[in-house]
Design the sequence.
């Protein structure tokens, strides 16, 4: 029997619990993870439990355990960037987690730290960047590129040849039409339909999605 791989989840919150569920499902399908618990920089959570798993301390807990794998379960892309920079400095490895129910062609590529939750369908020649989060039940069309640290909330339909630059967030139930590019750091609100390119660093809402303000 192969030795199980120790892993911790960074972020003892709602999405962190969902990632714990994801790890359990991967293990039920033959995975080899040993989930030690959670890490969180909020001192009030240390010594408590989350889904009956311990909150072990802050991210620097890994300084003495850099052999342990980590997954960053924090939805905000900018916070995720900062956490991953700390992990990179410590030499911590972040595996790609893909739920067993995901439908994905062999031509697709997933970078380190990507999290792909249950019910996603990815067709062909898709590139999913570092630490991208694909929440529940999204579809991604041919040739799409999902930039590093992007977050796709549940129920989003991304058409073919879409490009999401780094740190894009797509809100629940949104649509992105064929060939559209969304600029770096842009947040697209829930239910919006992106029918043309969007600039970086804005909040866009509505159908068709239009920028309403710059992001701080």
Sequence:
């Amino acid at each position: 029997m192969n030795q199980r791989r120790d892993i911790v989840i960074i972020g003892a919150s709602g999405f962190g619990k969902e990632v714990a569920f994801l790890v359990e499902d991967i293990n039920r399908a033959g995975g080899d993870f040993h989930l030690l618990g959670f890490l969180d920089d909020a001192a009030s959570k240390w010594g408590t439990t989350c889904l009956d798993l311990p909150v072990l301390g802050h991210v620097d807990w890994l300084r003495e355990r850099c052999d342990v794998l980590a997954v960053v379960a924090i939805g905000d892309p900018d916070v995720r960037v900062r956490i991953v920079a700390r992990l990179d400095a410590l030499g911590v490895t972040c595996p790609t987690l893909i739920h067993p129910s995901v439908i994905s062609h062999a031509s697709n590529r997933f970078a380190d730290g990507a999290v792909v939750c249950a019910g996603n369908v990815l067709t062909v020649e898709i590139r999913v960047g570092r630490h991208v989060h694909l929440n529940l039940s999204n579809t991604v069309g041919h040739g799409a590129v999902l930039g590093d640290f992007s977050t796709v909330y549940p129920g989003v339909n991304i058409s073919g040849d879409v490009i999401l630059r780094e740190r894009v967030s797509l809100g629940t139930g949104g649509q992105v039409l064929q060939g559209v590019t969304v600029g770096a750091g842009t947040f697209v609100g829930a239910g919006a339909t992106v029918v043309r390119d969007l600039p970086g660093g804005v909040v866009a809402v509505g159908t068709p999605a239009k920028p309403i303000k710059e992001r701080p």
Summary: The longest strand covers residues 33-39.
